Amino acid sequence: MAACSALSAATLRSAAAPVSRRRATASPRLPGKRVSGVVRCSAAPGGHGISGKMAELWQAARSAPPGTVLAAVAAAAVVYKVASGLLAPPPPPPRRRQEVADEALPPALEPVQVGEITADELRQYDGSDPEKPLLMAIKGQIYDVSQSRLFYGPGGPYALFAGKDASRALAKMSFVPQDLTGDVSGLGSFELSALQDWEYKFTSKYVKVGSIKGTGPIEEGNVSTTSEIQEEAAAVKLNGEKAP
């Protein structure tokens, strides 16, 4: 219901325009008599209409079957969820797996020259010790692959090659332990070409930090290994001793 205030007749006369939703009547001022400025107000007919509609809706909801009420509630929940999804800000783009993995790995150490070391000494750089660089060799040349620890480090797909001269395994794309050697004798032209591609990749991406003792860079077309060279040298020496 609308609330009314006590107003004098002069105040009513000075009003710019009557309120549309109220009907006001004021008592006239008589000479010599004080007339109270009480205004009798009545509520606009619209107030009862709104209350009546709410009552009708409530009565209809009470008389409706339970299934209808549940369906209406479910429909309202669906509409709310859809509207919330449309108005919600888009989620941030997912981060690439490579970026997350790089953050989880410790920072790569600066390449350190190890010089000429033996194959046994090279095995100490297989990634098992995080304080040491990750090394592997191709054709007797040692490279620091610490920046690719995700691939050549422990648990990586090429972890078997770390700390070794994996020339033969890379040429044949083999993961057999017997092929984890620098011996490339008996390889075909296709396998030697694949090995050359690997060598080019390593020289362009990784830092060369040393070489394996007793081996030297294998030139294209010459697949002689250290053992074969040693055998040939021994044969020459033996023939020289037998010569008169």
Automatic annotation (TrEMBL):
Membrane topology type: Single-pass type II membrane protein
Molecular function via GO: steroid binding
Cellular component, GO annotation: plasma membrane
Protein localization: Cell membrane
Keywords from the named record: Cell membrane, Lipid-binding, Membrane, Signal-anchor, Steroid-binding, Transmembrane, Transmembrane helix
Record InterPro entries: Cyt_B5-like_heme/steroid-bd, Cyt_B5-like_heme/steroid_sf, MAPR/NEUFC/NENF-like
Pfam family, one: Cyt-b5
Entry coiled-coil feature ranges: none
Domain Cytochrome b5 heme-binding positions: 117-213
Family: Belongs to the cytochrome b5 family. MAPR subfamily.
Protein name: Predicted protein
Lineage: Eukaryota, Viridiplantae, Streptophyta, Embryophyta, Tracheophyta
